[in-house]
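Here is an idea for our session: we take a single protein and study its fold together. Start from the sequence, derive the backbone structure tokens from it, and show both lines together. Once you have written the record down, we can walk along the chain together:
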Amino acid sequence: MRRVRVLIVGAALTASTMAVPLVTHAGATTTLDPGVKGCDVLLTAPVGHDCLLPWPNNAFTVASNETSTGRQLAVSSTVDPTNVKGVHVSTTYINRGDGFSPGSVILTYVPNLDLVASHIASSTDIGSSLDLNAPIVLLDTVTGTRIPYFAELDAQTTNTAEQLLLIHPAVALTEAYRYVVVLRDLVDNSGHSIAPLASTTAAWSATSKSSTRLQYISQVLHKDAASVIGSTEPYMAWDFTVASEKSLAGPAVTMHKLAYKWLAKHHLAYHKKMAIPETDYAPVFTVTSSTTINGVRDVHGTFQVPLFLQDTTPFSAMTVDRSGHPVINGTKTWTANFICVLPSTISLSGPALPTVYGHGLLGSATEVEGSSFSVALTHNLAGCATDWVGMSASDVPNVERNLNDMSTFNTQVDHMLQGFVNFQFLGRLINSPAGFASNPAFQNGSGKALFQVGKCTFMGYSQGGIMGGAVSAVSTEWARVILGVPGMDYGGLLLNRSVDWNEFSSIYDKAYTDPVDQQVVLQLGQLLWDRGENDGYAEHLTSNPYPGIRAKQVFIIENYGDHQVANVSAEMLARTIGARNHQPALNPSFFGQTPRTNVPVVVQWGLSKLNQTKAAKAGLVLWDYGTPTPPTTDLAPNGSAYGADPHGDGRGNASLLTQITTFLTTGVIPDVCGGQACQSSTP
């Protein structure tokens, strides 16, 4: 099986592929099983939180001969956090996984830790995480390389007795690989060295024979971590295994295959009458309205998609077989909506270039009718949207239910996967001659399609960018992808840093009142959330594609100081998919103004320069609208000090629109900034 390997070369990250023997990356046959049920004996933690820390952790797995990693999650639902009603987070669905999230936030507790005195890499100096004497080491045990990261104390609470140390990988961790975390040479806030934990000392000296866990960690210290820690006893160390491709994307890939088989089977007779080959079969669709105003055709309707859920209510779960794999729910269908906007006439340059459009947070398909896409119409683009099932306005009641009790979070992710199928079928309606092109609502007066049939692309903004890479990674309908102000890793990087979380945390924080619980529960949720957002698919987006699916070309658009989707999250995505960036990436001054503070030492660290004269596999352009630097901790940019939110900026930026249209038509991301950092005073 081919895997992406991250290589550290100076400050740049590159991707390559390699064959990985199962025994090595799983680690199941080369080390003792931790043998700990529910809790880890390693850590002195905040009162009441000795369990599920440190995280992620192979202490919360068991050996398995039936998984791709050799591990199976075994997170106890009797020791994990409870909400205010005393309900533990259910781990039934979580424990189907064979490892942890590729974007896992590494959580541990170090009393009285001084980040600065310990020289721990921050979000503004990621490069220092790879220093030879860095106090935190994140080690890939398969390749022997160290993984870049940044770390912080949880700023969601000011109670130092409860502040967890949060370690964020700067690039998604490789599927099915095993990692070791080492903490060493730490200093407390009184300037004193922090002594190793008693459990570490016992494992280091191998004096304990009574604890299987300590014997296991002794092997981690002396075998896996020896190359980086030498003969100096660290503060603590542990290991974890990342989930496999099958565990992360298996449900979505299975649903994709089943859905297209369903399409061929259920529409065979209809399409034979039209002499349409099987590869061009289109879903049944209905146009419910078509209007033309000021040269814009606006078409509404519905289309039929196989139903994978138990029913069509927002609270339903996935229909599965005895092995837990998704299956189609009999003859039932999901009636998906669509809204398409396109020029009402064919321009001299030809029919419009079509794109499937992904809307923003808990919104709807109507976004394609608004200012987010209206300017694109003037550049001969056509947009079609459907609701992001699972994360649309109609799903708000389920979102609120889940925030009060994360035991039901699987239903939201199940709906997101149904939404993936809906998006694929919308793409097929654009690509197939038997689809939209066959209906007068999408034709000019001479019966010719107003858009380029078979030329579907994808464009998603905000939530549409966060989920857009995932739906694109499993798509057979489009090859070029625009991800506007996107990111990855909802539970680890996005929520706490977003002003959007203010509204939802007012529910969540009342249900899970303890700051440590809040972080742990978000990580439990991320184990499922990976299946519905970029975090679980990025490794396969631009290279190493899933079988039968081609790699995509991707253009990432980032707005400096974004209040809703943190820059650190967009840049993690860029590193993971091997993107190159426009350079210089940022001018600390904005049109001659006073330079901003807290600007990263190297903006967009780890990315190489993009060639903007040739088609790009993946490219990132940072646009600057004059916004101050966001907080350098896990806080949202609330308050006037952070200026106006640039998240929605770019719609009036003619230069950016030129980049968008050029990329969608040619694959090239042109330099429209004259060799300088990209700045615009026009939002």
Q: What stands out?
A: The longest helix spans residues 409-431. Residues 1-32 have pLDDT under 50 and may be disordered.
